[in-house]
Design a protein that fits this description.
Length: about 120
């Protein structure tokens, strides 16, 4: 997705990331809006005896929900930025990790010899 956005002109490049709290808000919003639209659509369709009215109400609510949920609005879905931890050590040195595992093995062998 980032590659597709990078091909857009600079004025159309938008951030597509939302945080975990934003995902929760988006999920709850679409659930509430579509549920209410379904209830309202059912009663309007029952009252007018037109199934098409009920379907139109639910479809309009789905379009409205899409406009609200799909863009990553910064005032709704990007309030709590994710703070990533920094790496503890260098990622490139594999000899350090193999040395530490070898040292751990030696310590385990010594401990088992002492207990016997």
């Amino acid at each position: 997705m980032d590659g597709m956005i990078a091909m857009l002109p600079a004025c159309l490049q938008l951030s597509t990331h939302i945080d975990f709290q934003g995902q929760k808000v988006a999920e709850r919003t679409y659930q509430v809006v579509l549920t209410l639209a379904g209830i309202v659509g059912f009663f309007v369709g029952f009252w007018t005896q037109q199934l098409s009215y009920a379907i139109f109400i639910v479809m309009a609510a789905a379009c409205f929900t899409g406009v609200i949920i799909l863009p990553p609005w910064s005032f709704l879905f990007r309030k709590n930025e994710i703070v990533w931890q920094t790496p503890a050590g260098e990622q490139g040195s594999t000899s350090t990790s193999s040395t530490t595992s070898a040292e751990k093995d030696e310590k385990k062998k010594k401990e088992t010899k002492k207990t016997k």
